[in-house]
């Protein structure tokens, strides 16, 4: 036996393993770039890989010499564990970093998380949202960044900063809502939100358009040029059904998409302000405008659905 152990250790002089330990790959096998071609296979005389082994790395994951943007992250801080993130496609030309996810989808789902402290005490907390694709994969995670005094004194009309991060934990979109007038009788200082991607670089704006009965908004690009219109119903009340805000062309003759507030059940609607939304837009729409649509959805949520069922807005304007 001693002779056998001596031979084993002698054949692997770089491992420095105690007598009786099984052999491992030598450190020289883990050479990095340049010319790195992935992890090597088992060496001669070593035990074969277990049954079902699919090669270097877990099944379904790319080999180590592939780009990192193809690797999904499963347990990002702030999100629910076990829900896979959408793997990022190659970024299109002139695409702001982090928006490449939007180039491959024509629908996103936004689910607001229920805050237990808010339900039990009525104390307004920072909102948190999961943004998913139609397959249930998480695309982004959004979190409000507003101080306690502003949240509880200004309520749904509060100014806020909403930070949206991707699967690598990088902030890719920032939403800035300033404090504006909340009266339908005043046609000035109406609601608006600025969308930045990356943070600090505006890519578009959502501006409320004054109307005595209907909630109307204008989508603008980074140059503040009108691009699209949004029109909602006269009575914004999610009573046992969805509420649709149509995305239209500038002449409002063609519907190109919609923002829908989904009915989530009588208990959730009555006792929480955690809402679910769906956004549909053309697949070939500019990714910047898709990001602006997400910003429009958050503005609509705060304007009409941020309160619980007993306090929810019952008209299209404040």
TrEMBL record:
Top-level division of the source organism's lineage: Eukaryota
Membrane topology listed for this record: Single-pass type II membrane protein
InterPro entries: Scramblase (IPR005552)
GO MF annotation list: phospholipid scramblase activity
Record carries keyword Transferase: no
Compartments, record wording: Membrane
UniProtKB keywords: Calcium, Lipoprotein, Membrane, Palmitate, Phosphoprotein, Transmembrane, Transmembrane helix
Chain intervals with Low complexity compositional bias: 32-44
Biased composition (Polar residues): 1-14
Signal sequence segment: none
Disordered, as annotated region: 1-64
A single GO cellular-component term on record: plasma membrane
Cofactor: Ca(2+)
Similarity comment: Belongs to the phospholipid scramblase family.
Function per UniProt: May mediate accelerated ATP-independent bidirectional transbilayer migration of phospholipids upon binding calcium ions that results in a loss of phospholipid asymmetry in the plasma membrane.
Protein name: Phospholipid scramblase
The organism of origin for this protein: Rhinopithecus roxellana
Higher taxonomy: Eukaryota, Metazoa, Chordata, Craniata, Vertebrata
């Amino acid at each position: 036996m001693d002779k056998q152990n001596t031979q084993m250790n002698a054949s692997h002089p770089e491992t420095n393993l105690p007598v009786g330990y099984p052999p491992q790959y030598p450190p020289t096998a883990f050479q990095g770039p340049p010319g790195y071609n992935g992890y090597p296979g088992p060496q001669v005389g070593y035990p074969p890989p277990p049954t079902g082994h699919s090669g270097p790395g877990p099944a379904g994951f790319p080999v180590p010499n592939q780009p990192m943007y193809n690797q999904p992250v499963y347990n990002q801080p702030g999100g629910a564990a076990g829900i896979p993130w959408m793997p990022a496609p190659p970024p299109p030309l002139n695409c702001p970093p982090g928006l490449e996810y939007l180039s491959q989808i024509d629908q996103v789902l936004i689910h607001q998380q229920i805050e237990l402290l808010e339900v039990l005490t009525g104390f307004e907390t920072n909102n948190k949202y999961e943004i998913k694709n139609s397959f249930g994969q998480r695309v982004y995670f959004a979190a409000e960044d507003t101080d306690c005094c502003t949240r509880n004194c200004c309520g749904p009309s509060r100014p806020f900063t909403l930070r949206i991060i991707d699967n690598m934990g990088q902030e890719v979109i920032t939403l800035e809502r300033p404090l504006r007038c909340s009266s339908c009788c005043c046609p000035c200082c109406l609601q608006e939100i600025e969308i930045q991607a990356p943070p600090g670089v505006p890519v578009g704006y959502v501006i409320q358009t004054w109307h005595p009965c209907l909630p109307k908004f204008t989508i603008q690009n980074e140059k503040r040029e009108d691009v699209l219109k949004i029109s909602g119903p006269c009575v914004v009340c999610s009573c046992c059904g969805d509420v649709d805000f149509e995305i239209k062309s500038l002449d409002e003759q063609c519907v190109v998409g919609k923002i829908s507030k989904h009915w989530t059940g009588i208990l959730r609607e009555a006792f929480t302000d955690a809402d679910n939304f769906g956004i549909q837009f053309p697949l070939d729409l500019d990714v910047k405008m898709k990001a602006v649509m997400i910003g429009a959805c958050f503005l609509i949520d705060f304007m009409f659905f941020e309160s619980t069922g007993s306090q929810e807005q019952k008209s299209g304007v404040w």
